[in-house]
Design goal:
The complex is a heterodimer of chains A (about 180) and B (about 325).
Chain A (H helix, E strand, L loop, with lengths): L5 E6 L1 H18 L6 E5 L3 H17 L5 E3 L31 E9 L3 H11 L6 E9 L11 E5 L7 E5 L1 H4 L3 E6 L1
Parallel strand pairs in A: 2-3, 2-4, 4-5, 5-6
Antiparallel strand pairs in A: 1-8, 7-8
Chain B lengths: L11 H19 L12 E6 L5 H12 L3 E6 L11 H10 L4 E6 L4 H7 L6 E7 L5 H15 L10 E5 L6 H12 L3 E5 L15 E3 L2 H5 L4 E4 L15 H8 L3 H6 L5 E3 L12 H4 L6 H21 L9
Parallel strand pairs in B: 1-2, 1-3, 3-4, 5-6, 5-8, 6-7, 8-9
Helix pairs in contact in B: 1-5, 1-11, 2-11, 5-6, 5-11
The chains are: A alpha/beta (about 180), B alpha/beta (about 325).
Chain lengths: ~180, ~325
Amino acid sequence: MGKEIYMSLALSAPDITRALTRISHEILEANTASDQIVLLGVPTRGAHLAVRIAASMASIAGHAIPVGMLDITMHRDDLRMRAPRPIMPTSIPSCGIEGRDLILIDDVLFSGRTIRAALDALGEIGRPHTVQLAVLVDRGHRELPIRADFVGKNLPTSITQSVKVHLSEVDGIDEVSIEES
Amino acid sequence: MRHLLSISDLTKVQAISILDTATELARVSDGAVKKLPTLRGRTIVNLFAEDSTRTRISFEAAAKRLSADVINFSAKGSSLSKGESLKDTALTLQAMGADAVVIRHSASGAPQRLADSDWMTGSVINAGDGTHEHPSQALLDAFTIRKHCAKGRVDLDGIRVAIVGDILHSRVARSNVLLLNLLGARVTLVAPPTLLPVGVESWPVKISYDLDKVIGNVDVVMMLRVQQERMNDLFFPNTREYSRYFGLNADRLKLMSHDSIVMHPGPMNRGLEITAEVADSARSVIVEQVANGVSVRMAILYVLLAGGPLESGGK
């Protein structure tokens, strides 16, 4: 007997674009010194979102926003509970993160463990002035005292559901869906 | 993957994945904080029943950069020199809770014996067994070649490599032939007939007895150490003749193409298979091989030890 999967669309392509544009404005509103902002995305999809937000912020602020990616695999606390994960690339903008206002960007905020690992990984690179968090989807069920500063969409979910983010850069289509089995 | 015993256990995808992981981990060795918390609380035993400088220190540095605890155990100064059997040593390590054993042994197949037995539950990593294999050396050599010659490609397709010297006694050559072939490189072995193993015709390589004919047409020249400690027979008339025909000197270096590199797994017999002038030249990547060794061994430890037994779940 095969498993039946129910899917519902949570965010369409225009919804995602609008949410990212709003997050871009909110980040600039909260950080008046826009030349101090550095964006770091968590691979894979967080890194693509970071590039999109950086482009959108650059058109609003009128200057380029440094953007990079931060792999957090080696700092995860659940490594031993899963099969080995491939390590993703890390690239830090040439300006570094020392003393900057750093915005971490991920696709889905769930348990908060990825962000805890990201904070540990940052500690090895430098000491930003502030660290803020932007996510496309906050689905709840936090296991750690972590919250996002900028949220594209709050999606109340049950723990058995799973949230799938598809981005055109990797999946050929922009959409967020909720699946349950 | 639980053990690393031989290159023949690896698929092309697995080998490339280890090299990619090593590329990312090399960043750690360049950074200000040379440590990751990934293997915290794991115990790795270096069991070296045969002498080694580079490989033991390299595995030790790799394990420590991933925060594992390292116990060094060498034949000299342990009960191995009193004649303790491999089984009893393994049972001791199991009782001490070793998560992985990095083993170097003069007997070919010793790591395989350890992995196939139920003496211990941890991972076994072959760090050189007799004249059989030395997989971590082959992986670091492939990593070094990829960095210099692959021009951004992930494999070694079409890269021409000459492996020169004492093939007969070389576990490095065996592992390298398997891995280079797996990754698409074209390998030529250059040696006097007495230093080629029986059955070499069936290996996926070309064979030459003339270094001068080969050296101008390759991207990589890998010199091997003449393993005098394993030679209980006369394999060549004398060392001066060997150097003249199979040694790499400044005159031969001039025959090499301008972007080719010189490698040596170490330890070198300076003046025998390679002159000091060549070993210290700009073409030589011998010191870089040692640095790359740490990154590649970190990748091996990560792949074997970081994951757990359960399968991955969704987000």
